Amino acid sequence: MEIKQIVEALLFAANQPMTVKQLRQVFPELAQPDNDEIQRAIDAIIEDYRLRPVELKLVANGYRFQVKEAMSPWVSRLFSEKPPKYSRALLETMAIIAYKQPVTRGDIEDIRGVSVSSTIMRTLLDREWVRVVGHKEVPGRPALYSTTKQLLDYFNLSSLSELPTLQEIEDLQPLASSDSTSTQETSEKQEISSPAIEAIEQQEITGTLQ
Amino acid sequence: MEIKQIVEALLFAANQPMTVKQLRQVFPELAQPDNDEIQRAIDAIIEDYRLRPVELKLVANGYRFQVKEAMSPWVSRLFSEKPPKYSRALLETMAIIAYKQPVTRGDIEDIRGVSVSSTIMRTLLDREWVRVVGHKEVPGRPALYSTTKQLLDYFNLSSLSELPTLQEIEDLQPLASSDSTSTQETSEKQEISSPAIEAIEQQEITGTLQ
Amino acid sequence: MNLDSAEHQLQVLPLAIVEGAPLSDLPEDLYIPPDALKVFLETFEGPLDLLLYLIRRQNLDILNIPIAEITKQYINYIEVMSDMQLELAAEYLVMAAMLAEIKSRLLLPRQSEMEDEEDDPRATLIRKLQEYENIKQAAEEIDLLPREERDIFATFVDVSNVKVEKILPDVQLKEMLLAFQGVLKRAEQLSHHQITREPLSVRERMSTILENLNGKNHLIFSQLFNNTEGKYGVVVSFLAILELTKEGLIEIIQSEPFAPLRITAATNAGSSTSA
Fold first, then answer.
1. Every domain range in chain B assigned CATH 1.10.10.10
2. What is the topology classification, in CATH, of domain B88-208?
3. pTM of the prediction?
4. CB proximity B111 to A under 8 Å
5. Does A156 touch chain C (CB under 8 A)?
6. What pLDDT digit, counting tens, does each position of B57-78 carry?
């Protein structure tokens, strides 16, 4: 049996994304193809489905077959229930956690200028889009939140760096009305490749099946 | 968009077999292809997948994509690993359906305070722990969910009334394994009246239920 | 999106009577008519959002906002809100105080040349506005990303012909009950969610009746009772029928006096039971 055939069957049968490593481990120990062979099979499958209405896509937790986005007007007609809508408050909270992680609830409230409702935090935790990665060593030991691979999967992304780039904060020009010219704090780089985030990305998130 | 492409997408997205008629009905009323066109599309798709590890097959209730028989040794290896755990959200949803049935998804969301993902509902339906017993006659005609005999069998109960009362649930102690702090609480004997609670106690002593 | 709708409303909605009385001293530079103020709290995600709206609305540079003018506008909003006795989140008032402070500081000659940028409340405010605006934009873009349930759909390929039985996650009853305990605790906090204490046997019977009704036109009332269950069973069935009627899930129909009672699935719309 050809490796490509097996990999394709596995990817269709698994109802969650599969990494190259996971695919390899399905093979018996003595007959395991190496990662390159699996990867070549995957690439060939991707090519095979280029013109079909389904595609093999890399998301954060691995490769998965999915119906192409262009088909969604048709496919959504299959399901009577409307997809959930998310409030601006939830999306903003999620964005802050994604870009500034790890953050406390206080940090989020600071940026948004309003308190964060418990419902929003619960929804994010409940959907396993966000999780507690630790506690900040300040009074009250508030929880530190980070985003998960599940969130990226949900948004069809394979890594945090595929998120829309956050605009850099412009340097504040000397205030027109003040004569102070003290050097500005250089604006923090908003790139999402801080060591902390990379660590988070590398961390295996033991996916729970819903 | 070509009819064949749409039909293929629908057959991949549907989680149950689809008849020609059902496929046709997904198209808007004024643009519905006739049965012959749908059938031709299906035949063409069957041909396209002839050499692939999945196939489009006619079963009693319609057409569905399935993994080819020859692939089953590989696919079975995929499923023989240890299964992941269900999320807390799933357990909560299941409990609400058990205690509040018949309920709509909206009712569940009301009680939980967060939205319920489609994946959770599908997992519960697939596992035949939950089923649709009717539709509520309000706009959208949402499905009414109830638990099944299979669920009762799984928990070794002969009827829902053997489940603990709300009061008993409030008094329920956390799982022994996750709680090592409170020693005094454990010494306090609980009033136990429901057979289910007894069953749980038994279970905790002897190991697992299954 | 919200800004657009707010602007849209302002063009469409006429000045209106507020709580029975016409609102006479509406500040002229207020950009939202009084009707829209009612949705104010839902339209804006907080004081920063409102400030951004005021700034963007006038194509002002965020780095060079006329504090005095913006403060005036902002405070006008807040005043109208409190005139209308709308419950205002404390954050809006804190911002008003901060703006007022900045305004007064700008009027005063600088006390010390050593004053840090850090301490300049205006710089802090501008920074916060920028940071919030960036997040707000990013959130809007994220909302447009293709996502599961809406744009991306999973594929389902049947594996039932696979010989080995799929191992499914195991659940202990206690796990489920503990999860439910959590739900009950939360529901207690949100006191408006009452979890009623219907006997479970009644709820179970409700499901059974609905299921039996599924696909059928009607059931005969008397058929819903099973004499072998004894008095208790009859009471359970009866309570289930009453509860189903109360929840509007079934209707009890008697076509003529002394005719057998019939139970049908409730029909508000056309009764199309075929899926």
1. 3-78, 88-208
2. Arc Repressor Mutant, subunit A (1.10.10)
3. 0.72
4. no
5. yes
6. 999 889 999 999 999 889 988 8
